[in-house]
Design a protein that fits this description.
Number of strands: 0
CATH class: Mainly Alpha
Strand content: under 5%
CATH architecture: Up-down Bundle
Length: 390
């Protein structure tokens, strides 16, 4: 029986809502801290624990989706996503908010894992890279608007309004998933409990080319997470700008990422995955290194801080589809597990980068820029390993 792919817009929406929910509270973190009576460092856990929850969730969804199917896991994840979002909106304390954010992240990451696996179910390796490029391009529109939406909602109605708005988007999308998402799993894979999950992960981790491809993916995405964690401090504290100013400039960066994702979707079939990945990673690393040089050489400036990030964001958008498609194609019958494992590595590494930036960024932008440069160079080194083993 042929596998009919679901509408691409639906995959874009369920993928994009998770990152939207992650970023929509970032401009309001200082306000959340004051409102709940906690320090800024404690309030930042609203971001870090969301990333950690996504990392854990993706490990769980992948193997379960390979065993029980994509559709039931997607429905269950969306229900948890909605429940966690509502719980966060009514949180009376930081502890409640953090617990709700973990639940929210565990539900929200379902679309991030399962959409990539669904695409791989329905298309071959090269076509998957192209369609994942369009998927990332489309879903980037939602998180690119999240900081500005969060800042405006916080100014008008308070920080909880951003969570209620997120819930209002999840509920109708859940109804569409129930009606329109088909099952695409080619054949269920055996999964004897937790041991089976661990064996699936180990089976992939024993493959050198998978390890190298995964490292390419999480190092290149680590550049973005480092920027996301440090840029608000560099812009608001270091340059004295408003959270709204940061959000507007972040949109410009997101457009660069969007352009890179479009380039991946448009040119991957023509150039091939390896060449597209090489171009993207060189742009990512070059922009990050240039940003570090400019931060060291010149006084703080929005233009000098964000223009190199535009090059980095374009390269990241161009590289990520091929990096992910290469990793999930190492063993196609475990595409769901591979997607979850790679996504978990991305978010787990991203969480570590937010902690590193939190320790090194003091408002000048240097800690952010150096962390980004290290991640970009690490991605290039990992690509050398992938090519040597592939």
């Amino acid at each position: 029986m042929p596998r009919v792919p679901p509408p691409l817009w639906l995959l874009v929406a369920v993928t994009g809502l998770g990152p939207f929910a992650m970023q929509v509270l970032i401009p309001a973190l200082p306000v959340i801290g004051r409102d709940l009576g906690v320090s800024s460092a404690s309030a930042q856990l609203v971001l870090t624990l969301y990333l950690a929850g996504v990392a854990v969730g993706q490990l769980i969804y992948g193997p379960l989706a390979d065993r029980f199917g994509r559709r039931p896991l997607m429905v269950g994840g969306m229900v948890l996503f909605l429940a966690g979002t509502v719980a966060a909106a009514v949180a009376p304390s930081l502890g409640w908010l953090l617990a709700a954010r973990i639940a929210q992240s565990l539900g929200g990451c379902a679309g991030m894992v399962l959409s990539r696996a669904i695409i791989r179910d329905c298309h071959d390796r090269e076509q998957s890279a192209s369609r994942i490029g369009y998927l990332i391009m489309g879903m980037s529109v939602m998180p690119m608007m999240a900081p500005l939406a969060g800042a405006l909602l916080e100014e008008a109605f308070g920080w909880r309004a951003a969570l209620w708005a997120t819930a209002a988007m999840i509920a109708p999308l859940l109804a569409v998933v129930l009606r329109a998402l088909p099952e695409t799993l080619p054949a269920p894979q055996p999964l004897p409990g937790v041991r089976g999950m661990a064996e699936s992960w180990l089976a992939l981790l024993r493959i050198p080319v998978f390890r190298a491809q995964a490292a390419v993916s999480f190092c290149s995405s680590g550049v973005f997470f480092a920027f996301m964690a440090g840029a608000p401090f560099a812009v608001v504290q270091g340059m004295g700008e408003s959270p709204r100013t940061y959000a507007i400039w972040f949109i410009a960066v997101s457009f660069a990422f969007l352009a890179g994702s479009f380039a991946a979707g448009r040119f991957t079939l023509r150039l091939g995955m390896r060449r597209m990945l090489l171009v993207g990673l060189w742009a990512t690393a070059s922009g990050a290194v240039l940003q570090a040089v400019l931060v060291l050489a010149f006084p703080p400036s929005l233009w000098l801080f964000f223009l190199p990030m535009g090059l980095t964001a374009f390269g990241n958008g161009a590289a990520q589809p091929s990096a992910v498609a290469g990793a999930v194609s190492v063993r196609p019958q475990l595409a769901g597990t591979a997607s979850g494992l790679v996504g978990s590595a991305q978010m787990g590494f991203g969480a570590l980068m937010t902690l590193l930036v939190g320790l090194t960024e003091h408002g000048a932008g240097l800690g952010t820029a150096l962390t980004m440069a290290g991640c970009g160079i690490g991605a290039l080194l990992a690509l050398r390993g992938a090519r040597a083993r592939g």
